[in-house]
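S.,

Sequence below, as promised.
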Amino acid sequence: MNLTTADRRAHYDDFVVHVRDLCTTPRIRADLAKCRGRRVEQISGEARRCLIKQIHPYGAQRAHYTVAALIALERPAHRIPQPASDSAPTWHQRPNLGATLADAVSRRPASASPMDRKLRLLVRLSSDLLHPRLPGLAGLLLQTGCHPDWAVLLEDLALWDISTRQVISRWQDSFYLALPDD
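The prediction came back faster than expected:
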């Protein structure tokens, strides 16, 4: 299947909606949550059964399972609805992980140094080390009221092993540009 960037991005948005729908069933939500940080070969049960048809044509299985597990961390009452596609900002205007970390700092200014350290650590990690760290970070962001754009994070994780430097640059630029001057 020859997919364009637009096809992939539409899939990433659809995937987030699909996973949120799945998370309305507590048993499936719990099974998706068990995917946190796991390698693809460690994922079985409901998570694999419910997601494989959505994931298979697009590759990047670990990225999909990781993001599904992160979405399962959201409390249903606190979810921010996805913008309608006709009112959504263009893809690169949507917040990446760096922008979301900066949003957390704006909500809790004392967290600037810790968030900076977290970002500096994340950008040095291989995907095998990155994926297991994301659930803790996502939980922290959700506690501060910051909601990552899961579709953008999915694209970044899917590209991590292919275009690591570009993803890192976007995350760092978004973080540092959003911070107030000292």
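The two ends are 49 Å apart (CA to CA).

Coffee later?
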